[in-house]
Amino acid sequence: MSNRNQIEALTIEQRVACQSDIDVLTCSICLSLMTAPVKQCTVGHNGCGSCMDEVASTIGTCPQCRIPISNGRLLRSTDVNKILLSLKIHCVNHFIYDRESNKWEKNSKGCPVITTVEKSDNHQSTCKYNLVKCPFQGCNVNLFENEMASHIAQCQYQEKIPCPFGPNGTKPEVDQHIRNLLSNHIRINQERMEDIFFDLHQQITTSIELSLEINRNVFSNFLF
C-alpha cells in the first residue's frame, strides 16, 4: 500500500507533450520511455542502457532479433540520445499533484510552456509559475511566483511599519492613511517645524542676551 503523504516524482514520460513521441521512443524491455544513455544491438534495436545491460548479462541476446549482445557487443545509440534531449515536454509547473487520487494532473492555471528535455532545467530556474512561500513570518501560503505580489500586498502577516503621524500598519495601510490625510499631515508637520524654530529662536535670543550681559559686566569691571 502506498503512503498517501508521499508524493510520487513527476516523470519525463508524464510530461511528454505528444503521445506519438512516446510510442516511437518506448523501450521494448521495460515498455516505458527510454532513458539515456540509450544502447543498441549491432542491428540497431534500441533500449534503455540499464535494460539492455541487464538483458546482455542474463539472456545475452537482443530481445527483438536475438543477435548476441553480451561481452561488450552493445553500442551507444548517439542518434536516439539526441532525440531524447530534443523531446518536447511540458514544464513541471504545468502539473499539480492530486492527493485524493495520488496522481499528477494537468493544471489549467499552470505554466503553458513546452520546452525540451535538454532545456527543461534552464526554463524551470526562471519559470514564473514556480511555487514560492510567502516571505512574511507566520504565513504558510504557497503560490505561483507570478501571483505572490498580489498576495503580499494584502497578507495579514505583513510587517507593521510606523506612520510618523499615526498608528502602525502594513505598508498599503500606511500608504492609504497618508493619502487620505495628507493635508492634515502637512499641517501637523508645519506646526512641529514652527515649534522647533520658535524654541531655537528663543534659545538663540537667550544666548545673545546672556553674552551681552557678560560683556557689559566685563567692560564695567575693566573701567572701574
Textual characterization of the structure:
The chain is of the alpha+beta class and 224 residues long. The protein has 8 helices and 9 strands. The model has no long low-confidence stretch (mean pLDDT 85).
- Tell me about the largest β-sheet: 3 strands, antiparallel
* Shape field: elongated
Q: Count the E strands.
A: 9
CATH fold type of the largest domain: Herpes Virus-1
Taking the alpha carbons of the first and last residues, their distance comes to: 113 Å
Q: What integer is the average pLDDT?
A: 85
Q: Total number of helical segments?
A: 8
Number of domains: 3
Q: Which residues form runs of ≥5 with pLDDT under 50?
A: none
Assigned CATH architecture of the largest domain: 2-Layer Sandwich
What is the CATH H-level superfamily of the largest domain?
Zinc/RING finger domain, C3HC4 (zinc finger)
Roughly how much helix do the residues carry, as a percent range? 40-55%
Strand content: 5-15%
Taken in chain order, the helices and strands follow as HHEEHEHEEEEHEEHHH
Tell me the Rg in angstroms: 38 Å
Q: By helix and strand content, what is the structural category?
A: alpha+beta
